[in-house]
Design brief:
The structure holds 2 protein chains of 2 kinds. By secondary structure, chain A is mainly α. Chain A is built from 18 helices and 3 strands. Classes of the chains: A mainly alpha, B alpha+beta.
Chain lengths: 418, 602
């Protein structure tokens, strides 16, 4: 019975828990998408191909097929062709800038008939794979400094292309590879610098540049007095100080000139500088009301008023967590958080156990991507972060997103098995 | 990368774990600890629609409709739900300017963000249709259907009263009312407000983000069905009321007609009056302003709120008291000569009637007789120690016949009238006064001032031979047979029944052979009394009191026409025509009727 062999192989080695988490999230996603389309008068057939929930059914079906294909193919294919995949996706992303359809202000979609594909979603997998391969090869290289630079380059190219597409959300996701870099030896100073930069940016945006520079100067003087005996580091400290001041100005410049008005508005809202619940902040406000009104156990499936009555925008895609929060309450939140936590930690744990560094690199790469997606998406729907339009993996409606996350996860499951 | 970084796994896991925990705490606060979002979600999605029940109708005693309802549509606004909208379009449809819209929204915001406020009252049916279709373009607005009062006959405005939007005071006094509701402000509408208004209903519907209704909330389990207002049957006789108003046209004054056996007011005319339809709907404020400033004071209800000197009709009451106090008997004769009743150098004029008993005295309205009788009542030292006691006893008799008080039934704003107390005279005359000092009250002049309603009630006491039932205007509530028994107690006067026979006999003679011959109605025996109330401001008021039929009274009529001169000339024929119309349902004396209707008195 040679035909059954791959099946046996699957059942033996593939990580069942990851598959279960995946299926649970996808099913939750479909159930929730159905709810967001549900019309209370009862005329919501299970199959209506004009409806997102029916389309999502197709995406889920094809995703499962994709998953099976990935599990069946030789894992060598995954490990040998990442560069090709990377370049192909990059080509599509660049192509999109010229021929793409604009959706919600971002030019990141290719329209084929009635379907749209977002190459950036696939670029995330491609970058994770390409990085893993590159790092595996770079391990033996002599010029490590240049290897690092090249690694950063692999990440920055898609960031720049995404920004050219006006898709700031996706661009941000590529920063998640910092988790991988950190795990693989990136100096902790980079992280500290990153955190300092974050704090400075926050203070600058929350208050103003004068305020920010005053604080930096005060900290610098205090630091200099405390370390007055260590003359050696004097020059370095001054450079850091000047860099911080320059950063303040660049943050301010970027805010003033680099952002679209609606992006500035979103930042101002989250910083508490402006409040316009009926106008610009309507979406965020309604999103918080939807989630907040869920209470402990929610209003019940198909009974959410905020989502049923269209108060929440984009409720089947980026704001899908509203429907979960409203109808299932804090209980639903815990289930979703639990599944994502379990998924991400499982990937990290399996990665750590891997002897093959390629798999570890890849695992850390995708764990970072999933974590970023999760925290940014939940953060924006609950008012912790400015609204950045990225989907909640496996749950949000959308073919590109589901396919790419499925490929991402099942490549890992496949690689992990070898 | 020579060093082993595998420990960083734990740092990464810890960092992500802490972040996840922080998010969980944030969500716990958002969903479980903060309950305000639940309220906000409900405010978003649930619109409470108040269902205003139709107000009860008002019928007259013969089932003729006096007041019914017309459909009207009010545009309401919920400030919280407002989104930017095409203001100029709304202005165009409603014929408002942008400043109006802004002001109205500001006012609504001040009242409440989430409770609907009235934006524009009574929009036309065309505008309603148009707006209903375009409602989604005006989030925060919705149209509420209402009912408006309508009056098939332009009569009885004073007694029916009017309905208008509640003011802040009403809302404060009764939590039932919300701004924009309607309330009965006077007359029957006010007195029977809780019965007429019914009970408001509530319907909770879901609205979507575009303000479209998306079905009922919670399957309508929280909905409250509106209870329609209960209809009321008035004691008024619509035709008699209209007839009275026609007769009083062009004159100032009042007619009060009562069915004596029941105290039911058959008609209550105050002239000048106004068409109750003027005080309905959007035209109300403008018309109300006009009526308020009208020098003729059409809003003033003379039948209840004007105190007039009753003139000679008051002699009836004084005659009864004199008989009761044994000052006179039916056969007592007083002599009238020398031009009247002499008080030192002052004379209460009369016509040298000669010697007469009470019958003739009533018949001829002899001032001398009643001055003397009144003086003797107050000088009765056998029964009363002093003038104060005698006068107070007289006041007691008067109030037992319904004077000096309000009946406090279902009539709007009654006046008590003015008859001074003994203390008043003690003070005025420094404790040195006697029956002659106040003797003009014996003939209905001087300090006494009473309302036409009180006079009519006194006639009912005479007609009933000793008692009255408080006059009221509502006969039945709910259906025409469920009689309104609130005001059915017989209130007895302090006069023995036999004395009424005497006075009534005198009153019959007034009509057959005395001062009120003009009151004769073919085929019906009428009792009456003329009166001429001295008016210090101008021509005397013409007064007539009538009871018919005299032997089985069905109706008492009191009529007063300001500046009408002698009682016999204006008030007498009017009262007589009223009685004729009521008893016969037709009037044979059409010439007289015509003359009275056309008569104008400034």
């Amino acid at each position: 019975m040679p035909k059954l062999e791959p099946y046996n192989k699957m059942s033996k080695g593939f990580d069942a828990r990851l598959i279960c988490y995946y299926l649970a999230l996808v099913i939750i996603g479909w159930i929730t998408i159905y709810s967001t389309c549900y019309i209370p008068d009862g005329s919501t057939p299970i199959f209506d191909f004009g409806q997102p929930y029916s389309k999502q059914m197709i995406w889920i079906g094809t995703s499962i097929l994709l998953a099976i294909v990935i599990l069946l193919i030789d894992s060598g294919i995954i490990q040998h062709y990442p560069y090709f995949f990377y370049l192909f996706c990059l080509f599509l992303m660049v192509l999109v800038i010229f021929i793409g359809a604009e959706i919600n202000g971002a030019k990141s979609w290719i329209k084929i008939g009635s379907f749209s594909i977002q190459p950036t979603e696939f670029m995330k997998v491609a970058t994770a794979l390409a990085l893993a391969k590159f790092m595996q090869e770079g391990k033996t290289a002599n010029q490590r400094r240049y290897v690092w630079l090249a690694q950063f380059g692999l990440v920055f190219i898609p960031i720049i292309v995404a920004l050219l597409q006006h898709d700031a959300g996706s661009a941000l996701v590529f920063f998640s590879f910092i988790i991988l870099f950190y795990r693989e030896g990136l100096s902790a100073e980079f992280l500290v610098l990153g955190i300092i930069a974050g704090i400075i940016a926050f203070i600058t945006l929350k208050f103003n540049e004068t305020y920010s520079i005053a604080i930096i100067t005060a900290v610098f003087i205090a630091f200099m007095i405390a370390n007055r005996t260590q003359k050696k580091k004097y020059r370095r400290n001054v450079i850091v100080y000047l860099a911080c001041v320059a950063f303040v100005f660049s943050v301010n410049f970027l805010y003033e000139h680099g952002l679209e008005p609606h992006q500035k508005q979103r930042i101002d809202t989250i910083m508490g500088k402006t409040s316009d619940p009926l106008g610009a902040d309507f979406n965020l406000n309604q999103s918080k009301i939807a989630i907040g009104s869920g209470g402990l156990f929610g209003k019940g499936y198909l009974k959410g008023t905020q989502t049923k009555l269209n108060f929440v925008p984009e409720q089947s895609t980026d704001f899908i967590f509203c429907a979960i929060g409203e109808e299932w309450g804090f209980f639903g939140t815990l289930v979703v958080f639990g599944l994502f936590g379990a998924l991400i930690f499982r990937i990290l744990k399996l990665s750590e156990k891997q002897r093959n560094p390629f798999v570890r690199y890849y695992g850390y790469g995708i764990a970072g991507i999933l974590a970023f997606h999760f925290f940014i998406n939940i953060g924006m729907t609950t008012g912790l972060l400015p609204i950045i339009g990225i989907p909640l993996p496996f749950i949000s409606y959308g073919g590109s997103s589901l396919w790419s996350f499925t490929i991402m996860l099942f490549c890992f499951i496949k690689l992990n098995d070898n | 990368m020579a060093q082993d970084n595998s420990k960083r796994y734990y740092i990464i896991v810890a960092a992500l774990g802490i972040l996840l925990a922080a998010y969980t705490v944030h969500l716990f606060r958002l969903q479980v600890l903060n309950t305000s979002y639940k309220t906000k979600a409900d405010e978003n999605a649930i619109r409470e629609i108040t269902i205003h029940p139709a107000r009860g109708f008002i019928y007259d005693r013969n089932d003729s409709l006096l007041v019914y309802n017309d459909a009207a549509y009010d545009l309401m606004v919920v400030p919280k739900e407002l989104r930017p909208f095409d203001t100029s379009e709304l202005c165009r449809v409603l014929d408002l300017d942008i400043e109006d819209v802004r002001k109205k929204i500001e006012k609504a915001k001040k009242y409440s963000g989430s409770v609907p406020s009235l934006f524009k009252q009574q929009i036309s049916k065309e505008d309603y249709g148009y707006l209903q279709e375009k409602m989604s373009e005006f989030p925060g607005f919705f149209v509420q259907s209402r009912t408006l009062r309508s009056y098939p006959q332009p009569i009885a405005a004073h007694i029916l009263g009017y309905v208008s939007e509640v003011d802040e005071q009403d809302v404060e006094n009764d939590s039932y009312y919300r701004m924009g509701d309607y309330i009965g402000k006077s007359g029957i509408e006010k007195a029977y407000e809780p019965i007429l208004r019914g009970v408001k209903g509530k319907r909770k519907v879901l609205v979507d983000v575009h303000n479209r209704e998306m079905g009922s909330y919670n399957n309508g389990e929280d909905d409250i069905v509106a209870v329609p207002g209960t209809s009321i049957w008035s004691t008024l006789d619509m035709q008699l009321q209209r007839y009275g108003e026609e007769l009083m046209a062009g004159k100032r004054g009042a007619i009060v007609a009562i069915e004596p056996k029941t105290g039911e007011i058959l008609c209550l005319v105050s002239s000048p009056n106004y068409d109750p339809n003027l005080l309905v709907g959007t035209a109300r404020p403008k018309n109300y302003g006009k009526l308020v400033t009208d020098p003729e004071k059409p809003l003033f209800n003379r039948a209840l709120q004007a105190a007039y000197p009753p003139g000679s009709t008051f002699k009836l009451a004084n005659g009864l008291i004199a008989l009761q106090d044994h000052i006179i008997t039916p056969s007592t004769v007083y002599s009238c000569s020398g031009g009247g009743y002499h008080l030192g150098n002052h004379v209460v004029h009369c016509h040298n009637c000669g010697g007469l008993n009470i019958y003739s005295a009533i018949q001829r309205s002899c001032n001398t007789f009643f001055c003397r009788a009144y003086y003797n009542i107050l000088s009765n030292r056998v029964k009363y120690k002093n003038i104060d006691e005698a006068y107070t006893a007289w006041l007691d008799y008067m109030s037992s016949m319904g004077f000096l008080q309000v009946f406090d039934t279902d009539l709007p704003y009654e006046l008590k009238g003015r008859i001074p107390t003994a203390e008043y005279f003690d003070k005025k005359y420094n404790n040195s006064w006697n029956g002659n000092t106040v003797v003009s009250m014996g003939i209905g002049q001087g300090e006494a001032a009473v309302t036409p309603l009180q006079m009519a009630n006194m006639l009912a006491v005479i007609a009933n031979k000793g008692y009255y039932i408080r006059p009221h205007v509502v006969r039945a509530i709910g259906n025409r047979d469920s009689l309104n028994t609130q005001f059915s107690d017989k209130i007895y006067s302090k006069i023995e029944p036999r004395h009424f026979e005497t006075v009534l006999q005198g009153m019959k003679q007034v009509v057959t052979a005395g001062t009120g011959r003009g009151a004769q109605i073919p085929g019906i025996e009428v009792a009456g009394k003329t009166g001429t109330a001295q008016n210090p401001h101008g021509r005397d008021h013409s007064v007539f009191a009538l009871i018919a039929p005299a032997n089985d009274p069905q109706i008492v009529v009191f009529c007063l026409v300001e500046n009408g001169g002698f009682g016999a000339t204006v008030a007498c024929p009017i009262a007589s025509l009223m009685a004729e119309y009521y008893l016969n349902r037709k009037v044979e004396r059409t010439d007289l009727e015509q003359r009275m209707k056309e008569m104008k008195i400034k």
